[in-house]
Hints:
Elements: H1 3-9, H2 14-27, E1 35-41, E2 47-53, H3 57-67, H4 72-86, H5 96-132, E3 137-138, H6 139-145, H7 150-159, E4 163-165, E5 172-174, H8 176-180, E6 184-192, E7 198-206, H9 208-221
Antiparallel strand pairs: 1-2, 3-7, 4-5, 6-7
Amino acid sequence: MSSREIAELVESRHDKVKLSIERLAARGAIALPPMGEASFVGTDGRKQHTTEYHISKRDSYVLVAQLSPEFTGYLVDRWQELEERAAAPATVPQTYSSALRLAADLADQNAQLAATVAEQAPKVEALDRIATAEGALNLTAAAKTLQLGPIKFCESLRKMGWIYYRPGGKRNLGYQDKVQAGWLIHKVRRVVLPDGSEKIVEQVLVTPRGLAKLAILLDQTNGGAA
């Protein structure tokens, strides 16, 4: 702590405090502290220059006890404040130049974040529209919605365990866990054959929730290309 700070703390003149330090050091009560130059703004608002001692914690207690014992409590509080400031994380800027550098870094980070948000906004908006849309799509229409070819789309669904072929069958069916999750549904319809007979046909459809889920999964699988 500087001798000027101690003078302000005990409400004494700085030159008297420096004289007390020199007297105590001459008697061997404290070590003569190093002296340095300092600048401060005086009561008249003008910048002033002075020399001040930089005194250790132990010797500051001896000095204040000599000058004004009633201010010892204030000295304890001041040292605690200084020690907490010294223990502050290194990321807290301690100088004006480091604060400017930190502000520039934060500005760059904010710019990058804004660019990322702007880039992802259309995709997020599209997913929101898909998830809240009404109705389900067949696999061909779902592939078109996700901007994929039907064959590639169905191959991806099989690899991910969404659809499969029944043994001996040629139509895609959805796995039960995907149906229970609300991502796929099975539609059963009656088809009239040319000879007049009827046939029951099962068709797997992708729900809006399923489309939104697939958009995310396919995007991850393709490295963000979807």
